[in-house]
Amino acid sequence: MKNNPLPRLDTDENLRNELLPHCRLKPGEIWEDPINGHKVGCLDATNSLDIKRLMGGEYAKLAIHDPPYNLVAFQERSIAEFINWCKKWVENSWLWLDKNSALYIWLGADQKDNYQPLPDFMIMMRDLDFDPISFITMRNQRGYGTQKNWMAVRQELLYYVKGSPYFEVQYTDIPKILRGYYKTVNGQTTENLERSKSDNIRASNVWVDIQQVFYRMEENISGCYAQKPLKSIERIINASSKQGDLVIDFFAHSGTTLLASEIKKRRCFTIDIDPVYCEISIRRLELFRQKGRLGWQNGHPFEMELPDRNSEQPQLPNNGQKQEVFQQPVQAKLL
Ligand SMILES: C[S@@+](CC[C@H](N)C(=O)[O-])C[C@H]1O[C@@H](n2cnc3c(N)ncnc32)[C@H](O)[C@@H]1O
Question: How many CB atoms are located within 10 Å of the residue 32 CB?
Answer without folding.
Answer: 15
